[in-house]
Write a structure and sequence with these properties.
With 610 residues, this protein is α+β, with helices and mostly antiparallel strands. The protein has 15 helices and 19 strands. Strands 13, 14, 15, 16, 17, 18 and 19 form a 7-stranded antiparallel sheet that branches. Helix 7 runs parallel beside helix 9, helix 10 packs antiparallel against helix 11 and helix 13 crosses helix 15.
Length: 610
Amino acid sequence: MTVHEGEEQESVPQKKKTLSDAEKRKQKIVPGSLMKAVIKPGGGESTPSDGDRVMYHCTVRTLDGVVVESTRSECGGKGTPIRHVLGKSKMILGLLEGVPTMLKGEVAMFKMKPELHYGEADCPLTVPDSFPKEDELHFEIEMLDFCKVKKVINEGQGWESPREPYEVKAWISAKTIEGKEILSRTHGEPYFFTFGKSEVPKGLEMGIGTMTRGEKAVVYVANQYTTQSPLMPIIEGVEEVWFEIELVHFIQVRDVLGDGRIIKRRIRDGRGDFPMDCPLHDSLLRIHYKGMLLNDEKMVFYNTRVDNNGQPLEFGSGEGLVPEGLEMCVRLMLPGEIALVTCPPDYAYDKFPRPANVPEGAHIQWEIELLGFEMPKDWTGLNFQAIMDEADKIRGTGNRLFKEGKFELAKAKYEKMLREFNHVNPQDDEEGKVFLNARNSLHLNVAACYLKMGECRKSIEACNKVLDASPAHAKALYRRGMAYMSAGDFEEARADFKMMMSVDKSYEPDATTALVKLKQKEQEVERKARTQFKGLFDKKPGDIAEAGVGNSRDIMLSENQKNDNKEDSDGDKEFLEAEDAPPRMGFLSHLWPTGRRFFTAFGLDRCSIL
């Protein structure tokens, strides 16, 4: 009987251990996808483990050595190291696996396949569209420090933790390893402090920075991290202090620009998790807001609940319909959240239609409530015509922004459409022709934006995307020719304008006008060069030639600006998707071609140096 009972017990299947999210992610790692090379060995024998707070510098490079992003100031970063809690903070998969292998002080290079960094499916971190997340990359990591942080007594809610400059309320008590009480702030009102202001010991602040709302934990702080603060003095002769903390509440305070000029302070929590449930680009937003002058009187100059018949303001994000500072902050809010925003004039009304009772240069405070938002329309399941209709609406918004001089926002709209077009598949030749024309038009509008922004080379690249597929595209030749002319590549510009006439005679007037402008540009630059080098060849050997270099550059820039302004009024609007006007042209970009023609005019093109 006993044997049978034992056999029966053995036959009962064992309950499988539930894998954590981190363990599930690590199952994606395959041989060769993550490789490590030690650049500088570390010290000691211990490595960080789950629950440890790690502090490290990170520099991301392409395999060619080009820096993509970095925390180091010498590589273009802010100089602030990354601080993560292993097993708690969101990390890319390669570092989640690689960082725990490092010693303190070690510098290592991790070579990662895309699926090990931001190219991972369902990666918990996001990067800008310009980040090469589909490429294999090098991550150079310097492990500055790591330490045991805390022991959790009661789990908190959500995942957001306080950071600089959040406002925090917490119950705090402290004792030595031997159990001697040092501090007790567990009665009356919770201790209030601003994160990052040294109002609690450094080690305690590091520990609280790993906690979530409502969490209760013991934080272990070594002597060197029990720094002077208003909470408590430095305790001499104590190797380690154990802090017991209950994180009662914290208020999200964000330095939006990183320079203290736009500050967003959350007054009431919203619904959902930050930032996953915040509005995306191109969302339809509904807000109530109250605008006040940031002065002693705090004069209210607009209130949607009073001045808009109680109706909320509705606007599309990324369309330039509200001041830039207001939109930046709304996009960091959750539905139902109320926030108080302070904003400088250049992000408020100095670059936006100013209300009559707001003086120029005024600093503004907005009290904003995000009532809700609608996500951008999903194209999945739409037929081809419906997709093109949606595309026309967004392109129309981009055209409006272009005419208003908001070239960055207009470019963003056109580029969004081009990304969406990557998932559109025309079903027949007719749809293919419509699709190709629409895509070419978007590329040329992007080129026009770059040209207005003074980025001639990027404008040329955008035109090339059309000409690579359609070498005889007249509009692309014209747009690229204008970009070449602005960049000072006169011969290339002339070739494009002549090619344009040969491929389509109907555009001959536009090409002829462009060639005339090109000739005027060349003559103007050559005249400036002659003025600059006047007297250079009139001196006897040994004399010092005085070229007219005093104010020639300033003169040229002002003249070019006048010419460009004139071109703004002469552009062929019917011919272009968006009006062209070459940006101001620098002298150095023209110096060599013009210099060559100048010396040739003097018969010196074949001179030899003896």
